[in-house]
Amino acid sequence: MFDNLILYLQSKFTITDEEIEIVKQVCRLKKLRKRQYLLQEGDVWRYNAFISKGLVRTFRVDEKGQEHIIQFSSENWWTGDRQSYITDSPARYNIEALEDTEVILIPKGDFEGLYRSIPNFSDFMHLLMERTFIASQNRIHAGISYSAEEKYHDFLKTHPTLVNRVPQHMIASFLGLSPETLSRVRTKK
Amino acid sequence: MFDNLILYLQSKFTITDEEIEIVKQVCRLKKLRKRQYLLQEGDVWRYNAFISKGLVRTFRVDEKGQEHIIQFSSENWWTGDRQSYITDSPARYNIEALEDTEVILIPKGDFEGLYRSIPNFSDFMHLLMERTFIASQNRIHAGISYSAEEKYHDFLKTHPTLVNRVPQHMIASFLGLSPETLSRVRTKK
DNA sequence: AAAAACTCTTGACATTTATCAAGACAAATA
DNA sequence: TATTTGTCTTGATAAATGTCAAGAGTTTTT
């Protein structure tokens, strides 16, 4: 039931069988069908969520009704709204399944408990946070430095597996381009 | 000598006098004159750096010689190249003082020592990392969603103190706009 | 199987933003 | 003080990207 998470943890750091039991104790599985929402703008996000199967998008809708995707999360990635999680404020993002998806939810309090009882887990998650931050800095750099074409090629490099799973207009939204511009960038060469 | 850092730490979490001594032990003060570099692309960054006075910019230069500023850091903020720090790889960023600046450097090994000996410090820095990540997500959102004008107004909101300290063309670089466009955005209205 | 919804492309055109060049100040330096 | 350097603005023009509209395939739903 939580096998994918266990395998993930074992691959990332040393964890004992007892510790695995502690983790399992606080996990809850949630199944989402394609197009179902994991989080809706306005709700408070109180979990850490591990995608064990499938794919979700995190996005916002502006006043003009335009969607802006700030993240895709597929198997073996974490998702959620950090702002809402940290400050207990209403989420500004929506999270929606792009495929049938399985998510393992760990409530905030339990998650903090894991940090205390499993130091290796805490260390790893902090390192992961660092890496995630570095990735987001790279994305900022791409955003302010690259042309439409360069942004797309950068996306191919950094998210090679997503290109065939995500509709093109969503990649455009993720990159801050119109779908038409992305289409033209792709066909031309 | 390290007063500003001490005051900062005391304002952020509970820290004992003994712990402050431990911190002082590993601090090194570095003074930079305006236009001096704290880090040059290609060097490995091995510190955590606290700005106790002044202002620096973190930027990259592309093949066309164009500079792209990904961060400003002023008093009571940390700076450095996380990628280089975490992976011991050559830095891809330059860090340059925009004013006469004082930086407190703590070498990587010592910094990890502080994490072990001062749990409150570790907890706080992890929380700070979370907040920094949230800020960078907000910036990504602005980058893919906003027009030039909206980007500038967002900058005014998120960095109100910098507008009068940083040359306008550097704000443009930070926002991914040409200096001329930013100038026009500002005068119009 | 038919209908509906979604996805991508393409063309014509509009808008935004960048580029190039010049000039006016202001600040830093000799 | 004179000179140089840096900063910002403005205009003319070019280039990049967005918008609107249509159509052709796909996939999903009924």
UniProtKB/TrEMBL annotation, chains A, B:
Organism per entry: Flavobacterium subsaxonicum WB 4.1-42 = DSM 21790
InterPro entries associated with the record: cNMP-bd_dom, cNMP-bd_dom_sf, RmlC-like_jellyroll
Family annotation (PROSITE patterns): CNMP_BINDING_3
UniProt-recorded name of the protein: Cyclic nucleotide-binding protein
Domain of life from the UniProt record: Bacteria
Domain Cyclic nucleotide-binding: 36-114
Pfam families named among the record's database cross-references: cNMP_binding
